[in-house]
Amino acid sequence: xxSGGGAVWISAxxxxxxxxxxxxxxxxxxxxxxxxxYKGIERRKYSRVNATFVVSYKPKEIRxxxxxxxxxxxxxxxxxITTNRYFKKxxxxxxxxxxxxxxxxxxxxxxxxxxKEIAKNFLYETRLRLLDLDVEIxxxxxxxxxxVLEKKNK
Length: 154
Description:
Layout: E1 2-4, E2 7-11, H1 12-16, E3 29-34, E4 49-50, E5 54-59, E6 67-74, E7 78-83, E8 92-98, E9 106-119, E10 123-130, H2 135-153
């Protein structure tokens, strides 16, 4: 993935490596919508850092059929993932998360706060609020975020 001029690009090789096939030869690059970086005062309750962790998710009302994705960023209160479908605000998702700083996999429920299309009928940025996170995991995520921010500010 590369960015330039406020736009995000993803190469066909990168897209193909995500396990999706093409019916015909894809173009060299796919163009996604403009990315506008917020430059105002931080209003989030919890600090957020860019981080890539493996997450599997499914709508809570569905019994089977997890999708596997990676986080784009994370905080003690939630995370941003990229999904291949649109979710309505308020939809609850069942998550299984793998953090390198926690030996076991984490099972949690998240609520969709926002879902924005970044490639027409193809890719969505899905913002999640964590609902039932274990107190110890909540604390460990906070420690991880603080360490990343300290490193970044040095």
